[in-house]
Structures are given as C-alpha cells and as structure tokens.
Amino acid sequence: MGSFPSFEKNILKYVDLSEDELAQFISCYTLEAVEKNRVILNEGEVCEFESYVLEGCFKVFYQDENLKEHILYFAIEDWWVLDIGSFVSRKFSKLNIQALEDSVILSIDRATKEQLYIDIPKVEKLFRIMNQKSLSSMHLRMISMLHKTAERRYLDFMERYPTLNQRIAQHQIAAYLGISHEFLSKVKKRLLRN
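Below the sequence we write its predicted structure tokens.
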C-alpha cells in the first residue's frame, strides 16, 4: 500500500509509533473508492468497518418513521466514519452512511483491529483517545441541539465545516441543524442582514 500522509499524521498526533509499527498499522487498512450516492451502511446491517476519509464527504444519518432524514454528522477529509455502536457491539445499526461525493476511504474490519490491539498495544491507546474525543464532540453537539438557536447552530456548522457549504445541498445542512430547508433560508437571510 502507498503512502497516505494525512492518515499517518492523524495517527501520529495521538501515539508515537515506530516506522515499522506505522507500516504494519497502515498495511491493515484497505483502500476503497466510493462513488457519489453509494450507501456503505444501511440501517439494519451490522457495521463491519471503521473508515478514515482520504477524499470526499459522507453523511451519517437516520430516518424517522416518516422517512425524514436526521444527519448526525458529516465525515469529510481527515475524519473517521462508522457506526461505532454497531461496530463494537455487532448489533444492527440504526444509522445509514452515504457518500455525498466521489470519495476515497481507508477501512479496517473489527477482527483486524482487534488483532492490531494485540500486535501493537499503543493502537488501543490511539483508539481510546479518538473515541473519547468523538464522544466529547457528540455531547457538545447534543447540547447545541438542545440549547442553541438555529442561527448559532448554523454559525457553529460553518466553523466546524468551513468548506462544506459549497459542497453539499442546503437541505442536508438543514437536516444536520434540525430545521427545515425553508427555515435555513430565513436564518441565512437574517445573518446576511446583520
């Protein structure tokens, strides 16, 4: 497998791996091109992968009983994408993951990851730190959804995903913010006036 500088940098900012350990770690991942609109996880399936996004964008979402989409997060370059609950527990996912652009990912399956924990003990620390950061981020997002205005949530979205506004449809941003597409248009107009 070739060199993936962004992936290597992402790993090495959390743990110090030797060149051999890093090479072994990277060799456990599979490179995959994912075409736009392809669903890589459907609700009701077990999430068999944990993926790092080299290029592109994914949405992680669920659909309610009225088939309304609720987007939990977008996974863009240098982000990880999976349903961690399903991946760890081996239970059916309640989430869907879909590519919003032609994308490239590096993926690892659960058994290979578990073996990495044994072969390179520092890898367990790596994923513990990443999972803690992810959990903290999700808590902040939940608080935001409960207590912040739509305007503030939109500004937070723009700060978190500065380039995404031009890459995805406005109704997807609205689904992430928990508001209607029409209300998002009003929010943007108000912010422009101010």
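The mean pLDDT is 93.
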